[in-house]
Automatic annotation (TrEMBL):
Organism: Mola mola
SMART domains given in the database record: L27, PDZ
Protein name as catalogued: Uncharacterized protein
Residue ranges of domain PDZ in the record: 61-127
Highest taxon above the source species: Eukaryota
Annotated ranges, domain L27: 1-44
InterPro entries on file: L27_C, L27_dom, L27_dom_sf, MAGUK, PDZ, PDZ_sf
Length: 135
């Protein structure tokens, strides 16, 4: 609005835009948007201890927002243990771009559902039904 006010001769479209933006409803909408956009909604996790041994395994929570795009990773099931692993991360896909999933990562749960013993097709169905993946 400040930039529009600086113009000496406003076109009809610029004047219409200015009038629209100064509407109290639009001002409230923009203010609400700015307030929501500043909040960090990610989980706050305690840091891993500094003195953790090199061979110690750590669990991390990963949150990927898919937005109707494929995950860009394949999974496999260990037939002996029933555990589900990331088999492959497809170059350029969501998982690759995020840098959060790697081949060999063990999936413990997806969207709050434990995946131990499930068939890969069942895990894929959980992924399809939801838009994010903590695990």
């Amino acid at each position: 609005m400040t930039d529009i006010q600086k113009v000496h001769c406003l076109s009809a479209e610029a004047q219409e835009l200015y009038d629209f933006l100064k509407s109290p409803h639009i001002q409230a909408l923009l203010s609400s948007h700015d307030s929501v956009a500043q909040v960090d909604y990610g989980p706050v996790l305690p840091p891993l201890p500094d003195e953790m041994p090199e061979d110690e395994e750590a669990m991390r929570i990963v949150c990927l927002v898919k937005n109707n795009q494929p995950l860009g990773a394949t999974i496999r099931r260990d037939e002996d243990t029933g555990q589900i692993y990331i088999a492959r991360v497809i170059h350029g896909g969501l998982a690759d771009r995020s840098g959060l999933l790697h081949p060999g990562d063990l999936l413990v749960e997806v969207n709050g559902s434990p995946v131990l013993g499930l068939e890969p097709e069942q895990v894929i169905q959980i992924l399809v039904e939801h838009h994010y993946i903590p695990g």
